[in-house]
Every structure is written in C-alpha cells, then in structure tokens.
Amino acid sequence: MKNWLKFFMFFISGTVLCYTGVEARPNYKNLVEVELNKPDEKTVVKVKREKKSQIYIDSSIAEVALADWLAKDRNKKIDRAVKVYDKIAKKNNGKMSVSALFVVCMAAYNKKKSEMLDPQVQNAMWPVCVQEFIRPLVDLTKDTDVYDEVMKEVYDGTRFNESCTASVRVENVPNIICASGNYSFDPAFEKAMITKFRLEGGCADVGDGNLITCFGVAEKYHPEANNCSFSRVDAEKIAYDQYYKNFNLDLLPDAIRGDIYMAIWGTGDAKRSIQWLQRILGVTADGLVGPVTVDAARNYKGNLRKQYLKRRYAHLKSLENFPRYGNGWSKAVYTYLKNGCHSETNDNEQIKVIECPRNKRSDYNIKGRTCVETH
C-alpha cells in the first residue's frame, strides 16, 4: 500500500510541475554538440592588412625611451642596441617605425641578424619588446594622431567573420551587467567579463577541489578570494593582469581574445590554451602569443572561434569529472558560441545596467567557512 501511495504522490507532483510550467534543466551537452557541428553559413576571407610603415615615432622621443630602458638593465647589450638604432635612424632620416624599434629591442637582447629573421625568435621576443620597450615609448608620444596609429600596430582590434556584438542575445543566463566598466578601453575583455560574471554567479564551494570560488576566482590559487572585502572589481583585476594581459591576448584579433582568455581562466593552463589556437592556425605551437601567431590569426580563413571552441570542448569531454560537471561546462561553451564575442546585447536592444546584487564575498554565507577580515 505504501508503495502505491509513493507512486501516486510522485505522479501528482510531476503533474503539478508540468501544469505550473516548471521546465526541466536544459541539456546543454546536446545543445552545444548541435551548435559546434552546424556547417558554417559563410566563410569570410579576411584581406591581409597593409603594413603601416608610414607611421613613425619622433626620433628624439625614441632616443630618450631607449636610453631610459637600457639604463634599467645593465645586462642589455647597450652598445649593440645603440649601433643598430643609429644605423636604422640614419637610413630613414631619423625616423623610427614600430618594426624598427622591434629590431633595436632584439639587438639589445643580443639576437643575431639570422635570429631576428627567425619566426620562432620573433614569436618569443615580440611580447617582451612590446611590454618592456615599445609600449612605454609610445606612451611618451605627444602627437595624438601618431599615438593612435602606432597603437594600431601594437594593439590591433581587427575583427573577423562577425563583429564583437552578438546578433541574438542568449536567454540562458541572467540579463544583467556586473562588469565594473574599468576596462571599457578593451571591449573584447569587458564583454568576456560580462559573460563570465553571468555564468559564475557569486561565491560558493561546489566541491570541485578549488575550495571557495568567488566571482570565478578559485581560493585554491588565489587565497584572497576568501577575504570578506573581495569583490567583482578584484576578480576583474586578477583576470586582466594575470590571465589576459600577462599572456598578450590583447594583441590578438578581438573576436578570439575572449575565448582564449576563458580557456586560460577555466583550465589554468595558458600554454595549452594558446597551443590549441596555434595548431588551428598551423604555426609553431610554443604556447606564446607573438607576431607569427597574431598575424596568422588576423588572416585566418574561416570561423576561428568555432574551431577553437571545438578543441576546448573536446578537452572538457575528456576530463574524468565531465559526467558530473559537464552540463555546466557545456552551458558555458554554448553561451560563448551564441554570444559572438561574449557581447551582452545586440545592436538594437537597450539594456538596463543595475547594481549587481551581493557584490562582495561577505555577502555570501557558505556552510563551514567564514570569510577573512583584512585591514
């Protein structure tokens, strides 16, 4: 009798759920498989950009920046760098292009001419030279027109295949914006953070071995995530400095940056995440974003985002925890796919920016754990 009663109560409860319109949780594993295996609607061939060789840095500014940079590190081959600089400046009537400055930088690191022409050496040296020498030099430029044009050489927001604004807004995540706006100068990163915060929610211990995860930051790797004052602003700074800028993702076309950043953030393995991209592009898979990788990404024929997400999803499916966490991981990949470059809305839709609820670690009660007060 008791068994019949249990069956009857189960049947009634199921009927009520259906009647009240409560939907079952979507099977994102199936949804993402369908999306990844859809044939591309179109293939856009990106025309190779013209070299901006006509853009030059004022030689007086370049000389000051070079002297300042060399003085900071006596291990640099100062004489060799100056000799190469003078040779180029003399040949170009005192003008210095970005590519010329790159050569000077490699000379300071004692690279021979044959090494300077080696794509692998360039790939390794480009991010170093941009960060240590070229960007600080450009910051000294007073001519705003020249500054803007030179920065296009260093930071190119080239889009391909689709713009960084989604044509259709995804309905499977809350329609709120929790990004701070501090990184609006890099729309690709900011939009990725909007998506990340929507998917991550707040602070919790989900039992995945990372202790507490707060706004996407795992306490296992960042103990400050359990500080009572830890906020989404702090999470953004960690994401930008350690997972995005640190690996030169801002040098890539903006339509692929968010996907690679999400992979690095999610796996904690920057080298492998970048190698996925390099293998698709057919360049040396050294795990470093340099000029060879950047140029190949700019000129890729086809849907690079989909190819990259296919590789990432294949990796996720190979993990032993996929049966347990796979639907959540699949939801994330599905959201990336549908959101273009992680855009929050389409061109014609107005979205209301609201104060995001529970914006600090102290706003969350986690069983068995208290946050750490800092002073």
CATH class category name of the largest domain = Mainly Alpha
In helices, the fraction of residues equals 40-55%
What's the end-to-end separation, in Å? 63 Å
Strand content: under 5%
CATH superfamily of the largest domain: Chitosanase, subunit A, domain 1
Q: Please state the CA-atom Rg, rounded to the nearest Å.
A: 25 Å
Number of domains: 2
Biggest β-sheet description:
3 strands, antiparallel
Shape: globular
Number of helices: 15
Structural class: mainly alpha
Lateral arrangement of strands in the main beta sheet: 1-2-3
Low-confidence stretches: 5-23, 42-53, 155-169, 341-353
Descriptors:
15 helices, 2% strand, 375 residues, mainly alpha, 3-stranded antiparallel β-sheet
What do these coordinates show?
It is globular and about 70 Å long. It has 375 residues and is an all-alpha fold. The chain is built from 15 helices and three strands. The protein folds into two domains: 35-47 and 161-363, Chitosanase, subunit A, domain 1 (Up-down Bundle), CATH 1.20.141; 59-154. The N and C termini lie far apart (63 Å). Strands 1-2-3 form a three-stranded antiparallel sheet. Helices cover 52% and strands 2% of the residues. Strand 1 and strand 2 form a beta hairpin.
